[in-house]
From TrEMBL:
<dbReference type="GO" id="GO:0003735">
    <property type="term" value="F:structural constituent of ribosome"/>
</dbReference>
<protein>
    <recommendedName>
        <fullName>Large ribosomal subunit protein uL15m</fullName>
    </recommendedName>
</protein>
<dbReference type="InterPro" id="IPR036227">
    <property type="entry name" value="Ribosomal_uL15/eL18_sf"/>
</dbReference>
<keyword id="KW-0496">Mitochondrion</keyword>
<dbReference type="InterPro" id="IPR005749">
    <property type="entry name" value="Ribosomal_uL15_bac-type"/>
</dbReference>
<feature type="compositionally biased region" description="Basic residues">
    <location>
        <begin position="36"/>
        <end position="52"/>
    </location>
</feature>
<keyword id="KW-0687">Ribonucleoprotein</keyword>
<dbReference type="GO" id="GO:0005762">
    <property type="term" value="C:mitochondrial large ribosomal subunit"/>
</dbReference>
<keyword id="KW-0809">Transit peptide</keyword>
<feature type="domain" description="Large ribosomal subunit protein uL15/eL18">
    <location>
        <begin position="95"/>
        <end position="175"/>
    </location>
</feature>
<keyword id="KW-0689">Ribosomal protein</keyword>
<dbReference type="InterPro" id="IPR030878">
    <property type="entry name" value="Ribosomal_uL15"/>
</dbReference>
<dbReference type="InterPro" id="IPR021131">
    <property type="entry name" value="Ribosomal_uL15/eL18"/>
</dbReference>
<comment type="similarity">
    <text>Belongs to the universal ribosomal protein uL15 family.</text>
</comment>
<feature type="region of interest" description="Disordered">
    <location>
        <begin position="23"/>
        <end position="66"/>
    </location>
</feature>
<dbReference type="Pfam" id="PF00828">
    <property type="entry name" value="Ribosomal_L27A"/>
</dbReference>
<dbReference type="GO" id="GO:0006412">
    <property type="term" value="P:translation"/>
</dbReference>
């Protein structure tokens, strides 16, 4: 029978008794047995190490990007063209979609019973206008034209045709107006301006390149002739028939307002062709208006008698009974 252990063997066994069990989690190599791998240049592939013969490719002194061996490079050989010339001076317009406008109305941040301008849009946190960063106002875009249901009287700086049609479909009014940077800053923040006690400056007219836009009735410009609005509305009804008035009241008002313009187009010595063209225009407007048939039929018969009466007063051959 072996006696008790003494000396170093006993101490080693006592140490193993207190140490944790050997596992893959606590194994590690002996100190000094592992050395980090040296990775000098050119250690692989042998010979010239894949760098080829002497020159800039072997020595790592390659030319800059765009260098074409000494000849005139492409970016100097081709002449310049000012695609971005004056980009820092171009007018910027913040887009305002009809989806966003309907969202602001539904939340109560914009009151549709009052005229909607930049003051109401900025106060309702609908848009953020910064005149010092070349912002010149708001551009109304047609996103959400199919779901827009509010009747509003809105003033913007730019508006697309479909956006105008979508608002006028519900009986609303669109006006495009220009503001110079100083007036735009006052319109966006009127309270700080009036607290300063300064006189109200005169609103400037649009620059020369924007005068045709704001004097055109198709864009509902604030400098356009109001007498040309029925003609522009009829032309828009032909382009976008699905975006014309949907309510009977609005359909009838559109029909009767455009009727006066159509009847005034009959010349003094008109022929049957003139009246036929006018009836074709009325038929196009009638089919484009999304309203009940009863309203349209009553308007149609009234229009027929009205045009015949006007044609007879002007001496048109088809209604006066004489040969042209």
């Amino acid at each position: 029978m072996a006696g008790p252990l003494h000396g170093g063997r006993a101490r080693a066994l006592d140490l193993l008794r207190d140490l944790p069990r050997v596992s893959l989690a606590n194994l590690k190599p002996n100190p000094g047995s592992k050395k980090p791998e040296r990775r000098p240049r050119g250690r692989r592939r042998g010979r010239k190490c894949g760098r080829g013969h002497k020159g800039e490719r072997q020595r790592g002194t390659r030319p800059r990007l765009g260098f074409e061996g000494g000849q005139t490079p492409f970016y100097i050989r081709i002449p310049k063209y000012g695609f971005n010339e004056g980009h820092s001076f171009r007018r910027q317009y913040k887009p305002l979609s009809l989806n966003r406008l309907q969202y602001l109305i539904d939340l109560g941040r914009v009151d549709p019973t009052q005229p909607i301008d930049l003051t109401q849009l900025v106060n309702g946190r609908g848009v953020s206008i910064q005149p010092l960063k070349r912002d010149y106002g708001v551009q109304l875009v047609e996103e959400g034209a199919d779901t827009f249901k509010a009747k509003v009287n809105i003033e913007v700086q730019l508006a697309s045709e479909l956006a105008i049609a979508a608002i006028e479909k519900n009986g609303g009014v669109v006006t495009t107006a220009f503001y110079d940077p100083r007036s735009l800053d006052i319109v966006c923040k009127p309270v700080p301006f009036f607290l300063r006690g300064q006189p109200i400056p005169k609103r400037m007219l649009p620059p020369e390149e924007l005068v045709p836009y704001y004097t055109d009735a198709k864009n509902r410009g604030y400098l356009a002739d109001p007498a040309k609005f029925p003609e522009a509305r009829l032309e828009l009804a032909r382009k976008a028939p699905k975006m014309v008035a949907a309510t009977p009241k609005m359909a009838a008002s559109l029909f009767f307002s455009d009727l006066g313009f159509l009847a005034s187009q009959i010349p003094r010595n008109g022929t049957l062709g003139h009246v036929a063209n006018l009836f074709a225009s009325l038929h196009c407007l009638r089919t484009s208006l999304k309203a009940p048939q009863s309203v349209l039929m009553s308007s149609w018969f009234w229009a027929h008698s009205k045009i015949c009466l006007i044609s007879w007063k002007k001496g048109c051959c088809c209604c006066a009974g004489r040969v042209a």
